[in-house]
Amino acid sequence: MWFAIKSLVALGICAGLGYVIYNHGMDYLPMGAPPTFQQVEIKEGSLVSVVRSNGTIKPVLTVSVGSFVSGPVKDIFVDFNDKVEEGQIMATIDPRTYAAIAARDEAVHATAVADQKRVEVLLEQAKLDEQRALAVQKENESYVSRAELDAKRFNRLSIEAQLEVAAANVKQAEAAMQNSQANMQYTEIRAPVAGVVIDRKIEPGQTLASSFQIPELFQIAQNMDQEMRILVSVDEADIGTIIKAFSEDRPVQFTVDAYPDDVFEGKVEQIRSAADGRQAVVTYPVVVSVPNPDLKLLPGMTANVAFEVSVIEDTVLVPNNALRFLPDPKHVVPDQRAEYLQRTAAKNQFVERAEESSSETPGVTGKRLLWVTDKNLLRFVEVEIGDSNDQMTELKKSSLKPGDRVVSAVIAD
């Protein structure tokens, strides 16, 4: 009996010690292997704030080349990406029909000219007949009657009118001939400007019908090796900042998926006032001019554009992922754990007003928590932040200094 009583007492003492150790000792003696934290360094440098958006790369000038006349395509002399000079023949339409019409109109014109000459001869003859009649009457009035003189005068006047009609016929025939000759020339599709063929929409043998709508045959991009433009849609919330950056002549950087490692530079050329309100989102077009000497930028590429809007020189910077880090309470030092849990609970009550950073101090604008290691646990440091971009944030007030390291993630627990 006595042995049983002593055994029960010993078990009670062990259980009590286990309870105390579990509830209080674990604050200081972490179970198992200590956690491993990923750390980043606080640095001093320049903070460049940007506004990001997407846009489409386009040539400065794109000219659509069409056909004024109808008919089957006979020959095509250019292809995609070919360089063309102004006036160069790009394609031809079968000219036989237009050649026949031009020959017919030339014949009609020649006939009208010949008829005009015939009437001119008749008029000359009528004038001489009238002059002879007047001369004979002057010698003796009885030789030529008044009726004969009137007949010769009215014959002259009639032939003069015929001459005017013949001259008008010549002009009409000449206009028809010039029209047919122009249509004959239109069977040769020529480049209106120098540039690069970026699109070809016809094939040999295809029949063109331009009676109702001029068909588009080619697209020529002008000066692609000199300059390209990006048409960027900027949200109305950012357009004021872009206008200010434009007035300060700040640079623009962008990347394209085709060359992910290359960063291209340009400048804002124009901010257009024409708003686009699709799906209840109002945007404004911003035109960015970029050089393209290597012809890397092609029409239709999507550009990921970053407009530089401000620069803060020589300031203390912390990576954004350190501000977003939110540790598990078990990793917080005991003397800060209760306060941290209280702050976390308060933050949840104000989640609708909280910013994207999960380490925001609730109810205190511009303040965040950064975490430093304290043996195997973490200790928070309250800081006040300023401007930020997509990588770094400015530290305005903090006990931390450049070179200090803060925790950004838990690697192993």
Structural class: alpha+beta
Biggest sheet, strands in spatial order?
Answer: 2-11-15-13-12-16
Beta-strand share of residues: 35-45%
How many strands in all?
A: 20
- Main sheet? 6 strands, antiparallel, barrel
Assembly level: single chain
Span of the ends, CA to CA: 48 Å
List the domain count as a whole number.
Answer: 3
Low-confidence stretches: 17-31, 357-365
Please tell me how large the radius of gyration is: 46 Å
Mean pLDDT: 85
- The total of helices stands at 6
The arrangement of helices and strands along the chain is HEEEEEEHHEEEEEHEEEEEHHEEEE
Please explain how this structure is put together.
The protein is an alpha+beta fold and 413 residues long. It folds into three domains: 34-47 and 317-412, no CATH class; 50-60 and 226-311, Elongation Factor Tu (Ef-tu), domain 3 (Beta Barrel); 62-200. It is 34% helix and 37% strand. The protein is built from six helices and 20 strands. A six-stranded antiparallel β-barrel has the order 2-11-15-13-12-16. A four-stranded antiparallel β-sheet has the order 3-10-8-5, with no helix packed on it. Helix 2 (96-139) runs antiparallel to helix 3 (146-186). Residues 17-31 and 357-365 have low confidence and may be disordered.
